[in-house]
């Protein structure tokens, strides 16, 4: 369903009367900033996690380690029809991936949706998804990288929390042999899903900018956020703590993306900034950019006073800890340490 028709139906149909908020403000101004943020129910043993492939493809055999671990947490699993499907780089055709994600969103017996992997493809289906039943009974959407599209959509339109974390393709074949940081980042997904506190192993970086701030958490993959700018899924950041990560980009490209953040106002009114892992492509010989991630970031935020943390454990790395987008957090950087935690 196209978004204009979706919003129009909300205004005309019976959903509006029973909804916990009124979307008229967004329809008129495009600014749903007054909507309350909602946290989906945390999972309990026996609840069901749906697994689907809204972006890249993944085989059933490749899913086995993730399935074994999720079941060990006491959850049931519902596999989507896109698991094992392939249309070139995608987990099935756009039509198949759309139908699978829609079924997961609508099914009240599914309590969380884990995206099998990232890659590319979520933006090809986002405008056709109907979130009406999802907003009546919200559930956790889990993933990162290309799944930033879904996090941004929930941020922009619905103010419903979601989990930015590793996906099925990152679960180790043999947990007992996994590196400590890798396994702890997997376990952080379980902690996030069950409402338990997560301790983030943030190593203090001398380049950090001290300060404190609190706000709703938002962010994800920088390239994806850039491509969504000006669209119906444009990420809102005012008064929030923003986290960013990326991989496979040249430094000059990262610089350009930070200029996009600055020029679109996404850096103006933050309460904190977390810079995660940036796996950078080496400069081509003779075309050296001559600036580091530190230079790029601080050039763009020099006019502001909010705290900035570098090397936060999130991104396309082993230490990719779960983060609850849409949930209030506090950030404090002082005395050579970083404290980041969820607040009420």
What is the strand tally? 12
Order of helices and strands: HHHEHEHEHEHEHEHEHEHEEEE
Find the CATH superfamily of the largest domain. Murein tetrapeptidase LD-carboxypeptidase, N-terminal domain
Shape: globular
Stretches with pLDDT under 50, minimum 5 residues: 1-31
Largest sheet composition: 6 strands, mixed
Mean pLDDT: 92
> How far is the first residue's CA from the last residue's CA?
35 Å
If helices are DSSP runs of H or I spanning 4 or more residues, what is the number of helices? 11
Query: What strand line-up does the widest sheet have?
Result: 9-8-7-6-11-12
Note the beta-strand portion: 15-25%
CATH architecture of the largest domain: 3-Layer(aba) Sandwich
Structure description:
With 344 residues, the chain is an alpha/beta fold. 31% of the residues lie in helices and 19% in strands. It has 11 helices and 12 strands. The strands form 3 sheets. The protein has a 6-stranded mixed β-sheet. The radius of gyration is 20 Å and the shape is globular. It starts with a helix and ends with a strand. The model is unreliable at 1-31 (pLDDT under 50).
């Amino acid at each position: 369903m196209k978004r204009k028709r979706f919003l129009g139906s909300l205004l005309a149909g019976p959903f509006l009367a029973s909804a916990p908020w009124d979307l008229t403000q967004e329809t008129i101004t495009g600014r749903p900033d007054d909507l309350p943020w909602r946290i989906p129910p945390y999972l309990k043993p026996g609840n069901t996690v749906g697994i689907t492939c809204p972006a890249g493809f993944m085989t059933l055999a490749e899913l086995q380690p993730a399935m074994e671990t999720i079941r060990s947490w006491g959850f049931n699993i519902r596999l989507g029809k896109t698991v094992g499907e392939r249309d070139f780089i995608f987990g099935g055709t756009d039509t198949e991936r759309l139908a699978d994600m829609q079924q997961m969103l609508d099914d009240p017996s599914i309590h969380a949706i884990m995206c099998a992997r990232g890659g590319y493809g979520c933006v090809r289906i986002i405008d056709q998804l109907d979130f009406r039943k999802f907003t009546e009974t919200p559930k956790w959407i889990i993933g990162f990288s290309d799944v930033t599209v879904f996090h941004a959509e929930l941020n922009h339109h619905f103010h419903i929390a979601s989990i930015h974390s590793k996906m099925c393709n990152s679960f180790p074949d043999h947990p007992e042999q996994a590196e400590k940081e890798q396994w702890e980042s997997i376990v952080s997904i379980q902690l996030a899903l069950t409402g338990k506190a997560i301790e983030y192993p943030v190593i203090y970086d001398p380049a950090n900018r001290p300060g404190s701030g609190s706000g709703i958490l938002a962010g994800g993959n920088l390239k994806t956020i850039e491509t969504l700018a000006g669209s119906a899924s444009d990420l809102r950041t005012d008064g929030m703590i923003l986290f960013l990560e990326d991989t496979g980009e040249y430094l000059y490209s990262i610089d350009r993306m930070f200029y996009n953040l600055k020029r679109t106002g996404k850096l103006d009114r933050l309460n904190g900034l977390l810079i995660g892992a940036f796996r950078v492509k080496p400069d081509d010989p003779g075309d050296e950019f001559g600036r580091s991630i530190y230079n790029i970031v601080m050039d763009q935020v020099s006019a502001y006073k909010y705290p900035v943390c570098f090397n936060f454990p999130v991104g396309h790395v082993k230490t990719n800890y779960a983060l609850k987008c849409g949930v209030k957090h506090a950030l404090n950087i002082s005395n050579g340490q970083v404290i980041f935690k969820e607040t009420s």
